[in-house]
Amino acid sequence: MHVFYVLLSQKQHPFHHQTDISKMDLSHMLQDLQQGKAHEGHSPAEHDTLLSRPVAEVLLHVQEKLKAPGLTTEQSGAILHIVEQLFTLGDRHWLFSECCSNQSTDLTREYVNFVSSLTLYAALPLCDNDSGALPESSFEAIPARACVVSSVVLALVQRLGNGGEAVSSHCQATSWVFLTGPLAPLLCVFALTHMQEQPWTSEASRTAASNLLASVVQAGDWETTSQLLFGKNNTERQPGVLGSILEILQSDLKRDSWKRNQATKHVFAWILMQVGRPWLTDYLEKVFPPSLLMSDDYCTDNQVLGVRCLNHIVLNVPAADLCQYNRAQVLYHALFNHLYTSEPQLIEVVLPCLIDLLPVLEKDPACTGLPRKPNRYDEVLRLTLTHMEMEHKLVLRSVYAKFLEHLIEKMGIVIVRHLKRLERVIIGYLEISDGPEEQTRLAILDALQKTLLIAWPRMECRLSALVQSLLRLLCDLSTESIPPAVREELVTKATHCLLLLDHCTQGKLKMLLKDVDSSCTSTSVLRCIETITMAQR
To answer: Which residues form a coiled coil (predicted)?
Structure first.
């Protein structure tokens, strides 16, 4: 331990005279640490040399060395390797007891400062441009640094969590319990920064960060990451660290700073997605503004991430809390404006979020009384149908069609206000194939089935147009080259829609189908017609 201190406390930078820590110095340090390990449990007087320096002084020197100008990655890695060995083999009494050489030392503060310094060593470079994105070449050194820092901090956490190690009988060692509050949030933010698949991570750094997070959970006697965030059984003895994590992130989630660190938004989103009912309500003030801020960005990726966060908030916060301070109204207008975009990935998250938000703002259409006045449900469906009718991009058509059924189901009987435009959209979408999987046609058939079940009294006047469209679809399917399983699913759904139309019109469809010339159509169409005509009401 003494050799370790001498190595780090040289007044001149050790690398001014050599390019690396010599094997002799390292072997001497490790040998001294092993000797200190063998003396654990003895009185401090038996190894005064080992404990002659306070641990805070050693940690401070490590921080200074890591900040030295001109330090290479290899040199800093060698220093951190020594620190890792210090935590692994060093005397636990010397490391964690606030007495003897560490008397009058606030070890909690010292370790927090040290861990903060290590995380800054592996931090991402800040982005000063408005795009909020740096080239991948800017992150070349980050994965290796993250791996080294993870190893050092992992050794510290494992040693702190090993409360069964013997210490001097007259001294009480600081345990992980006392360091949970200040250290766990820092370690969680660091681990989450480097465990997600991003340009600044590698497979090795992601594995190291995941192991670190698992070790933090285990050392704190938690069973899951959720318990780490919320606390164990919601007791004061083991409180969660969610509030502390959000406090750390707040300074980097303001309007003028949230784009500077590319990792912050991803860490925030990951944390938010872990928080459900009833805990999220307590943190609504901290999570709603950043989520809305990200969704309001001009970059599509940020918008998508922000809307996903907002959708999670809508699903996990009571309606009364969402409506307080007009939050729900503000959110509705922000999402509604996104419907004018032509980005498929954004529409794919905006539509379900709006569908989940509408029940918060409006009463169930089936329970609003008479007369039923148009409301936000009508606004959303009207704009959606307008875009669907004019859209020519197959990807966007598929996204719109996917959520149309859910919107119709939410609206219920008031869908009759929009049947004319809805009919045009359904017929138009059934005419065009969007690829081998036929996702658009399948989704539109689902929407048609839902419409027939809800608005059946108004279907008789639309019988002719819908039947022609469905029969044309069956004819097209007999000639188009699509997978047999997909063709069978389309035929089944189209047949079901025809059966529903027959029920809606009290058997009128059967009479019309009897006049079909069997010589002018395919076998599959004839089979469908036979199914309908033979069906019992």
So the answer is: none
Q: Which residues pair with 173 in a beta bridge?
A: 97
CA pair distance 305, 262, nearest whole angstrom? 13
Among the candidates 248, 264, 295, a domain finishes at 248
Cα R_g (the chain), whole angstroms: 33
What's the DSSP call for residue 287? H
Q: Give just the sign of the alpha carbon dihedral 439, 441, 443, 446.
A: negative
**236 and 146 belong to one structural domain:** yes
Task: Report the domain count for the chain.
Answer: 2
Tokens encoding 459: 């279907």
Single residue among 322, 344, 361 that ends a domain in this structure: 361
Residue 351: per-residue pLDDT: 97
Mean pLDDT score, 142-163: 88
| Phi, psi torsion values for 275, nearest 5 degrees | -100, 120
Average pLDDT across the chain, whole number: 83
The reported pLDDT for the residue numbered 530 is 81
Distance from C-alpha of 526 to C-alpha of 145, rounded to nearest angstrom:
69
- Residue pair 212/191 in contact by the 8 Å Cβ criterion: yes
The verdict on residue 313 lying in a domain is: yes
Note the pLDDT of residue 64. 86
Q: Which residues contact 363 (CB under 8 A, 6 or more apart)?
A: none
> Which distant-in-sequence residues (6+ apart) come within 8 Å of 411 by Cβ?
365, 377, 378, 381
Which pLDDT band holds residue 147 (cuts at 50, 70, 90)?
A: very high
Same domain, 85 and 208: yes
Q: Which amino acid is at 319?
A: A
Distance CA 405, CA 403 (A): 6
Q: Which residue has the higher pLDDT, 21 or 106?
A: 106
Residue type, 527: R
pLDDT band of residue 71 (cuts 50, 70, 90) is confident
Residues 82 and 220 in one domain: yes
Please compute the mean of the pLDDT values over residues 410-415 and round it to a whole number: 91
Name the nearest CA neighbour of 442 among 410, 390, 483.
483
The amino acid at residue 168 is S
Residue 457 DSSP code: G
Burial group, residue 129, by CB count within 10 angstroms (0-12, 13-18, 19+):
exposed
* 215-224 tens-digit pLDDT: 998 887 788 8
Q: Are residues 204 and 297 in the same domain?
A: no
Q: Residue 511 domain-assigned?
A: no
Domain span holding position 285 = 276-361
pLDDT of residue 524: 76
Average of pLDDT values for 63-67? 85
- Position 334 in a domain: yes
Tell whether 205 and 319 lie within a shared domain. Answer: no
Domain co-membership, 82 together with 208: yes
List, in sequence order, every residue forming a beta bridge with 97; answer none if it has no partner: 173
